[in-house]
């Protein structure tokens, strides 16, 4: 009896062990699940629809992938910044749509790109349309925070932080742009076009400029090292691509604005019509070219004849102009030589006179002739017949005037003469004025002194020139001016200034300054 009871007890224990190992644990047959986050207001990729449910291209895509891989999916809705941090911290398993970049590859692993999107520069319709990324360097740009475009503006364009206007959703970015904030918005083109239509924003250009420098290669992204999940996602993408389900999802969301899918019969029909059109146009052009060929040949002969005649006339004119130029340069050379002769004669004549006033008059006349001689010498050396640099003329003229005086060794000169081109008809009277002012300064301004300073400046602003000749000498008495002076020099200055339609004035501050102004 005891033996039978023991056998029953042992049999009961064996049944319990078999049941323990053979009967599946409750819940073991349930499908594994993964956790993800989508971003609202990123239509048509991800958004929350009117029923409060996650929707969009990326939602449909990952649902299809998860379904074929027999996995359950948990979806939350947060902004992009929180979505990135959640995946980085391991709080979620994957994100369905992340643009690949080398910076992100450090933190995440990526599937092959399931969608390629081009970014575009959106602007308001009343603003200048921006054509390329380099034009954003001095603009304020709206961009989604922590988006691939945000990283590009910071790393590639080096755009200052104050020029980057960050938003949490692309819808907010479009609203900011429409309200007048920022100069441009950087975001995917298809997303922007569909959202503009959805939000009914009429003042944003419907033809944004596509950026060719980079693309958004959207992929599934998992935390770095999560290879098992990434392999399942990759396999699911491959399956729905082979079955045609990917194309159906793409057409559902992007068929309205992206016409990249064209059926073969339709494409063949377009090609046939285009080919027929080319043939018809070719026949018309051929017939038309035959009718024009004779006219063209006749007209070509006429034009060749006219060209030959014009070339002959042009050569003759150029030869005459060259002869005239040579003649004018020769005239300048001879005038310079004659003036040099006159200067020598005046100098020799002054040596024979005893009257100091007569000697001074002859030397003053010699100095005036010298100013004109320097002009013609400069014209000849510069191979010019009418216009020369103000600096090339005045600088040597000042030196030639000062060196004639016995006190030249104690007088310093400071010259600030701009390199402006003026006509010799203006420079000739101007040279006489410079000569008179410097001559008077060398004679009277530094009497009884051991040193002196002469400053000459010349500048041209817009259509007006200003010449200033100053000294730090004893100054001219208040009673002496252009009208009351008994000497010929001051009167000559006023006369020459009027000849060039200018004005002359005396400024008595720390010496004397003559200010000559005239139009150019």
Key traits:
520 residues; 18 strands; disordered N terminus; alpha+beta; single chain; 5-stranded mixed beta sheet
Descriptive account of the structure:
- The chain starts with a helix and ends with a strand.
- Helix 11 (356-381) runs antiparallel to helix 13.
- The strands form 5 sheets. Strands 5, 6, 7, 8, 9, 10 and 11 form a 7-stranded mixed β-sheet that branches.
- By secondary structure, the protein is α+β, with helices and mostly antiparallel strands.
- The model is unreliable at 1-29 and 259-264 (pLDDT under 50).
- Strand 2 (47-48) and strand 3 form a beta hairpin.
- The protein contains 14 helices and 18 strands.
Total count of strands: 18
Q: What separation lies between the terminal Cα atoms?
A: 140 Å
Q: If you compute it from the alpha carbons, what radius of gyration comes out, rounded to the nearest whole angstrom?
A: 46 Å
What sort of overall outline do the alpha carbons produce when their principal axes are compared? elongated
- Secondary structure class reads alpha+beta
Beta fraction of the residues?
A: 15-25%
Q: Tally the helices: what do you get?
A: 14
Major sheet size, sense and barrel closure: 7 strands, mixed
- Low-confidence spans: 1-29, 259-264
Helix content: 40-55%
Average pLDDT level? 82
